Automatic annotation (TrEMBL):
It comes from the Bacteria. It holds the Pfam family Hydantoinase_A. It comes from Thermoanaerobacterium butyriciformans. Residues 192-499 form the Hydantoinase A/oxoprolinase domain. Residues 4-172 form the Hydantoinase/oxoprolinase N-terminal domain. This is N-methylhydantoinase A/oxoprolinase/acetone carboxylase beta subunit. InterPro entries: ATPase_NBD, Hydant_A_N, Hydantoinase_A, Oxoprolinase-like.
Length: 713
């Protein structure tokens, strides 16, 4: 049996999971305290949890096909200000050099309240004495006790030669170095330098941890290369971590959504990873995780990261009690207060309970409520307690507890307020979920999701305490992810390799698109993806003149014949109809392209007091395993072959381009091939669509049947 291993380093615990590579079923899990205080740091805990996982489950080193870990180390280092001072070496000449000198003088960066990254600057004029100037500048920066060097030049993304020279000389002098062109290929020296400085500030610590962990994994006999989770949901190898450790920041939330994406096979969804203190909320659209540029300490960066919104509400959130009722829920949790949840207590421990008011932290309000038993024991009143009382938590959920205990704890609160225990519980959940509701609605708006077809997916140990009630409030579908309590660790084990390449290009040509696609594909293969699993999505941001290529690929192919379950047409139609909220009789398979079903559904909608009836056409592309690959409304489906594709695509684009006051509005275009969906919706003109389509179809048989789907943008 071949195994995939995922390790997730959290603030409190380090978790490990072993997954059967063929069936994706969990073989075993291990949880150990994170070793922050150890001499080796978190690397010690990673090795301990790996050894225990392999010993407990009789896993041989040669059976490990894939091993990866996610870590909060970069995030914690930045939040706690545990960083080294950074020396910035700016390269320039003449007037352009003066501007570069100004743009790279970024001063001290506030990473978190009261926590600063200190930066020091040296400017080098490009001349015949360039190398000696670099050496002297680095020596002077060493006297300032900098721990890393950043090389910065205005147009290094086009020619990185001089930045590379600074890095080479710095490393020869014993200082780790990074360069602005390594972080991003976008213009904008100021933001590039800031991002590179933050990256440089954590280089020494992350390099040490990466070296120790990699060496220990090799000593264990595992030959599979160690991979590390990235903040955008992909993984990278250790060599990449040593260059760009900033990419590991926020990898915890990214691991959770990666697990949901692959393990739960979501098309359009809002993923809520609910812990004890907070909930991380993120978006999956058309089967892709949504990313954005991260902000650190309120400063914009060029770091592509999961777009995650964190809310201070979770399963352990405590209740604040006012004179007239439940005043608020959270943000303090039972964990912060150091109290056990009443719902996980033995009912016999809660004897004649009385209300007591506490301040979990000195600066907190003094009306957080707890329960004191006659035997002197104290218990927290939490969201999980309320959800168990009202029956939202099922017996197989991680958050399941003893509702009898929770009811006994709630009785003095109900008596004080003159309402029932159930009404108290309902008020707590309502106030708690209202916070999440605001964020979910904003994400639906930001990413233009269809609320009726978007599913709420719960992950994390506290998910059942929040997600079912929230779904009821919002009239949305939901599900709790399988093995929700270890979904982040599963996400690490199942993660894809991902690489984003961005360039500043005005009106990109066919050659620009081909070039960036090749660069992204080569980068993701170099990072460990198998070539035949790589998919590349191209996007043109015409407002900011950014051309972006996002490549993803698997590190190890799963055994399709053993793990996949092909569904019949009736099952496929049911999945599509459910996603469209219509009857199966109104759902029809329009065509089947290899493993892909193209389905249309019709729904009649009345308006103006029933006087006007409008028919809405839904389109779904579903693969033979029942995964919805595309969800669109009011689109058009065209059947063609590879040999006739150019002619037909040209024709359907001409027929569906809308001309308005703002010029030509290009429709979204998708191509359905026998085993995948090609998304061309990132293109902004017809020639770009035609060029990229030719690249994607290269190598396919002339007589192969495919489908074109056109939708209004």
């Amino acid at each position: 049996m071949k195994v995939r291993i995922g390790i997730d380093v959290g603030g409190t615990f380090t978790d490990a999971v072993a997954i059967n590579n063929d069936t994706y079923e969990i073989i075993g899990t291990v949880k150990l305290p994170t070793t922050h205080a150890a001499k080796e740091g978190v690397a010690k805990g990673i090795i301990e949890v790996l050894k225990k996982l392999m010993n407990d489950n009789n896993i041989k080193p040669e059976d490990v096909l894939f091993i990866a870990h996610g870590t909060t180390q970069a995030t914690n280092a930045l939040l706690e200000g545990d960083v080294v001072p950074v020396g910035i070496v700016t390269i320039g000449k003449g007037l352009e050099g003066i501007k570069s000198k100004s743009d790279t003088n970024i001063g001290d960066i506030e990473l978190a309240p009261g926590k600063f990254l200190r930066t020091f600057n040296k400017y080098i004029e490009i001349n015949d004495d360039f190398d000696r100037s670099i050496e002297n500048s680095i020596l002077e920066l060493k006297h300032e006790n900098v721990g890393a060097i950043v090389a910065a030049e205005a147009f290094s993304v086009d020619n990185p030669e001089r930045e590379n020279k600074v890095m080479e000389i710095s490393e020869n002098q014993g200082l780790p170095a990074t360069a602005t062109h390594e972080i991003t290929k976008l213009y904008g020296l100021k933001i590039r330098t800031r991002t590179a400085a933050i990256n440089g500030s954590i280089l020494p610590k992350m390099i040490d941890t990466a070296n120790m962990t990699e060496e220990s994994v090799k000593k264990s006999g595992i030959e599979a290369p160690l991979m590390i989770m990235r903040c955008d949901g992909g993984v990278m190898d250790v060599a990449e971590v040593k260059k760009r450790p900033i990419l590991t920041m926020l990898s915890g939330p990214a691991a959770g959504v990666a697990g949901a994406l692959m393990y739960e096979k979501i098309s359009d969804g809002i993923f809520l990873e609910v812990g004890g203190t907070s909930t991380d909320i993120s978006v999956i659209r058309n089967g892709k995780v949504m990313v954005n540029y991260a902000e650190i300490g309120g400063h914009k960066t060029y770091l592509n990261s999961l777009d995650v919104r964190t809310v201070g509400i979770a399963g352990g959130s405590m209740v604040r009690l006012g004179g007239k009722g439940i005043e608020d829920v959270g943000p303090r949790s039972a964990h912060i207060a150091g109290l056990p949840y009443s719902v996980y207590a033995d009912p016999d421990e809660i004897i004649e309970p009385e209300i007591v008011y506490i301040k979990p932290k000195e600066s907190d309000p003094d009306n957080y409520v707890a329960i004191k038993s006659k035997n002197g024991k104290m218990f927290a009143v939490t969201v999980s307690c309320a959800a168990n009382i009202l029956g939202y938590v099922n017996q197989n959920d991680y958050a399941y507890g003893n509702s009898e205990s929770a009811k006994k704890a709630f009785e003095p609160i109900a008596h004080k307020l003159g309402i029932t225990v159930e009404e108290v519980a309902n008020e707590i959940l309502k106030k708690a979920c209202n916070r999440d509701l605001e964020v979910v609605e904003k994400l639906i708006e930001d990413y233009k999701l269809d609320k009726s077809t978007t599913v709420l997916v719960g992950g994390g140990g506290g998910s059942a305490a929040i997600v079912p009630y929230l779904a009821e409030m919002m009239n949305m579908k939901y599900r709790i992810a399988k093995n929700a309590q270890v979904i982040s660790t599963i996400g690490v084990a199942l993660a894809m390799v991902r690489e984003v390449v961005e360039r500043t290009v005005q009106n990109p040509t066919e050659n620009d698109i081909i070039s960036i696609r090749s660069e992204a594909k080569e980068a993701v293969i170099k990072a460990g993806a198998l070539e035949n699993t790589v998919e590349v999505f191209i996007e043109v941001d015409s407002q900011r003149n950014i051309l972006r290529a996002i490549a993803t690929g698997a590190t190890e192919l799963r055994s399709k014949d053993m793990m996949r379950k092909e569904l019949n047409e009736k099952e496929i139609i049911k999945i599509a109809a459910d996603s469209m909220n219509i009857n199966e009789k109104d759902t029809k398979i329009m065509l089947k392209v290899g493993e892909m079903y193209v389905i249309m559904g019709l729904k009649k909608q009345k308006s103006l007091f029933g006087l006007i009836t409008k028919t809405i056409e839904f389109i779904r592309v579903v693969d033979s395993e029942g995964v919805i690959k595309l969800s669109k409304n009011n689109g058009k489906i065209f059947r063609t072959t590879i040999s006739q594709f150019d002619e037909n695509l040209n024709k359907v684009l001409d027929e569906n381009i809308f001309y308005g006051d703002g010029g030509a509005e290009i429709p979204d275009c998708f191509i359905v091939l026998s085993n995948r969906l090609v998304d061309l919706s990132g293109m902004v003109d017809k020639n770009q669509i035609m060029s990229l389509a030719k690249i994607e179809l290269n190598g396919h048989r002339e007589d192969e049947e495919i489908a074109i789907i056109i939708c209004k943008r």
